[in-house]
Amino acid sequence: MPRNAFYAQSGGVTAVINVSAQGVIETARKHPDRIGKVYAGRNGIIGALTEDLIDTSRESDAAIAALRYTPSGAFGSCRHKLKGFDTNLAEYERLIEVFRAHDIGYFFYNGGGDSADTCLKVSQLGDKLGYPIQAIHVPKTMDNDLPLTDCCPGFGSVAKYTAVSIREAGYDVRSMAKTSTKVFILEVLGRHAGWTAAAGGLAADQPGDAPQVILFPEIVFDETKFLGAVDAAVKAHGFCAIVASEGLRLPSGEFLSEAGTKDAFGHAQLGGLAPLLAKLVGDKLKYKYHYAIADYLMRAARHIASKTDVEQSYAVGKSAVELALAGKSGVMVTIERQSDSPYVWTTGTAPLDKVANVEKKMPRDYITDDGFHITDKCRRYLSPLIQGEDYPPYANGVPQYVTLKNAAVPRKLKTAFELKK
Amino acid sequence: MPRNAFYAQSGGVTAVINVSAQGVIETARKHPDRIGKVYAGRNGIIGALTEDLIDTSRESDAAIAALRYTPSGAFGSCRHKLKGFDTNLAEYERLIEVFRAHDIGYFFYNGGGDSADTCLKVSQLGDKLGYPIQAIHVPKTMDNDLPLTDCCPGFGSVAKYTAVSIREAGYDVRSMAKTSTKVFILEVLGRHAGWTAAAGGLAADQPGDAPQVILFPEIVFDETKFLGAVDAAVKAHGFCAIVASEGLRLPSGEFLSEAGTKDAFGHAQLGGLAPLLAKLVGDKLKYKYHYAIADYLMRAARHIASKTDVEQSYAVGKSAVELALAGKSGVMVTIERQSDSPYVWTTGTAPLDKVANVEKKMPRDYITDDGFHITDKCRRYLSPLIQGEDYPPYANGVPQYVTLKNAAVPRKLKTAFELKK
Predict the structure, then answer these.
(1) Which residues does chain A have with pLDDT short of 50?
(2) With an 8 Å Cβ cutoff, are B397 and A184 in contact?
(3) What domain range includes position B320?
(4) For position B234, what pLDDT does the model report?
(5) Which ipTM value was assigned to this complex?
(6) Cβ–Cβ of A386/B398 closer than 8 Å?
(7) Which of residues 10-29 of A touch B (CB under 8 A)?
(8) Residues B315 and B295 both lie in one domain
(9) What residues of B are annotated to the active site?
(10) What integer pLDDT is reported at residue A356 of this predicted model?
(11) Cis peptide bond upstream of B251, omega within 30
(12) Does residue A421 sit within a domain?
């Protein structure tokens, strides 16, 4: 008898997380003898806890295929992290209650480090609480900070956005620099690891190309060195384009700019870095500046997604289902690189207990000695990830993204569940 | 005997100003009997004043053709505005000295309102100072605020960027809104006119689509109404996406957020609006927010340029040369709309004395009564301008933009010229 599958999206969404959803759903649809329906959690794991399930079988093949071109989380995402079995057993018991009511035997969780931890715990429900379920983690994070995978689906597209954007802005500021703006700063998302900022370095093929300065969270911010590097670029090339990671830190370990609020995972919410750096440049070097803050635009930018990233995002979704059908559980699908050039990759697996809550930072030898650019080694790593364009369809000048019906699965339980904050 | 032409780029550059340069140069090259060489001003009009001319005949046909795909000002731009004849006669006398030395009989000036004024004055050099020259203005401004033309080359691409970006970010925030970010603000360039913000409205096809709130400089900011509109959108749709023009003003006429510095034309330099609005939303409505500041990214975004805009940018450059050959002077090339749907347009002309220093604001009936969205009339006007995609070529995942040789024309004058600030 086929059992049903549960799929959910977790954490910050990306331009291509829906491509993984497409991979999961399309692959599951090919195995009706083994997998019944794919139920998606409305707003991530919250949908499971509150028995708010979406019946993806109500979506046409065309709608599911259109997920390939649609950024964001088509079923809704959330930042709710399940705590340990000891701390909040009620949540796991509730999951089992819902899963049992809907005969769910497969759990596909699409997210980053926090959700890998949740997925690991779900994979242990059989041993710990007597409800066997196969749990496979489908990696997704624009931050590229998951361990044991060569790269993370979602990252390549953000990387491409950063490289394209700083190349374009660099051309712009170069042409204005004689009498106007000389320094341009692009602030990019990336809380703890500098991958997204590093990708800006791919725009610089020739000496003097933008960006001349990259600020990584891995390198403690040094005001004097920073101003020296900016001034040197302006003197040598007439302008300076900077990519700055929001996660830039002071020697004290504090973020250079703290908004003072915390998100639901207890992380500090950042944002005000670029104006701070810009003011420094203006006050100390007296150069006219402009700055942009990419924020959600970069992770939602399906219009300039990396084709490589799109293909990998599909592959991890497809592979997750195939692994489940092969009896696997407690693993994350990985991307394994066979060669840089030509770029050859396959999918693989990593045990979730080695993945959860481990952050992969930039290796020091990916950053130049002065701390302001990427090395050739880093370029060899990053370059394949942004290769290829995969444009969405357009009508009336704007991309045509799908909004699914997201029809609810009728509830079977009488009980409600209140989420702990 | 053919005489030489001078071409210069002025003011803030765009994703497509180089397409107009391409139009000027390619058209001039077809008339060697009438036009000798096209000399470009290095860094705009400053290149003329300082006799720093670029010999565009040294560029291959392929390099000139590649201008079609290259954002920014390929010859450099500037924000130097020529004052009146009475105020600074020396600048005009210097222009004549340089033009005479290089046998320049045609003047093509590619810019916005400020440069239309300069172009007008150059067209008067014959009458006022005895140096006859044909001066044609090639319109360019992402602000879309030039009068007497249906639209301004450069605007359509910014408009498309805004519509695409807020659609993508709207999808993103909608999927996060259950437990995380509910309000997203995109700050766009646009000092005095709301055209660039209005274009965001094209992303909203259906009720509830992003953006639900647009903030125009033409509508005085009212905090209570703004917060009411945001709260209503969150309550109705779960999230609110906002496009905010940097030029938003208080009832006093002051910009909502002033950086306190001035640019070379004496305009206030703006920038800090989005965080201010975001804080208001956070403090008063207690919704989690994110914001992006597009800044130069939007005007440099050749990767998502409007095909219509690219075609119009070429046409105004080509037409400028044809008008000069037909004996015209003191005019700006215009875009004239024949019909909205199907969209049919031609080029025309407007006398420069009616263009210079006039700003075209959004008509009130392009903005809904509540002040927060665009009307159907506005949509009919804007929609054709963002139609079509015109992707640049890519290699290694990044767009391939041309950097010209920009070889200097040998100087003929012994005299130097010092620019007045």
Answers:
(1) 259-271
(2) no
(3) 3-141+304-357+391-399
(4) 98
(5) 0.96
(6) yes
(7) 12-13, 15
(8) no
(9) 143
(10) 80
(11) no
(12) no
Residues A197 and A312 in one domain: no
Report the C-alpha gap between A280 and A275 in whole angstroms. Answer: 9
User: With an 8 Å Cβ cutoff, are A175 and B389 in contact?
Assistant: no
Please count the residue pairs, one from chain A and one from chain B, whose beta carbons lie less than 8 angstroms apart. 229
Burial A3-24 (b: 16+ CB within 10 A, else e): bbbbbbbbbbbbbbbbbbbbbb
Given CB atoms, is A165 within the 8 Å cutoff of chain B? yes
Q: Determine the residue of chain A that is closest to B397 in CA distance.
A: A387
B125 and B219 co-located in one domain: no
Residue A81: what pLDDT? 87
Same domain? For B19 and B161 the reply is no
How many whole angstroms from its chain centre is CA B367?
22
Q: Which residue of A has its CA nearest to B179?
A: A78
CA distances from B316 to A172, B16, B22, B150, B264 (A): 21, 11, 10, 13, 27
Kindly report the nearest CA distance between residue B79 and chain A, in angstroms: 6
- Would an 8 Å CB–CB cutoff place B73 in contact with chain A? yes
DSSP state letter for B367: B
Interface contact B290, partner A, CB < 8 A? yes
Note whether A347 contacts B: Cβ–Cβ < 8 A: no
Q: Shortest CA distance to A297 belongs to which of A78, A142, A420, A191?
A: A142
What's the whole-model pTM score? 0.96
User: How far out from the chain centre does Cα B187 lie?
Assistant: 17
Residue of B72, B78, B304 lying closest to A303 (CB–CB): B304
Answer whether B7's CB lies under 8 Å from B38's CB. yes
Using a CB-CB cut-off of 8 Å, the residues of chain A touching B295 are 290-292
Cβ-defined contact of A77 to B176 (cutoff 8 Å): yes
Candidates B298, B285, B304; CA nearest to B246 is B298
Is A130 inside a domain boundary? yes
Q: Other C-beta atoms within 10 Å of A193: how many?
A: 21
Which residues of chain A have a CB within 8 Å of the CB of B394? Answer: 389
Q: Are residues B61 and B201 in the same domain?
A: no
Which run of H or of E encompasses B335?
A: strand B331-339
Is the pLDDT at B9 greater than 90? The verdict is yes
Domain CATH for B350: 3.40.50.450
Query: Is A364 within the bounds of a domain?
Result: no
Q: Which of residues 200-259 of A touch B (CB under 8 A)?
A: 202-203
Pairwise CA distance, residues B204 & B187, whole Å:
17
- pLDDT tens across B258-315, in order? 643 444 444 544 447 898 899 899 999 999 999 999 999 999 999 999 999 999 999 9
Find the residue in A nearest to B78 (Cα): A179
| Yes or no, beta carbons of A15 and B74 under 8 Å apart | no
User: Which band of pLDDT confidence, cut at 50, 70 and 90, is reported for residue B421?
Assistant: low
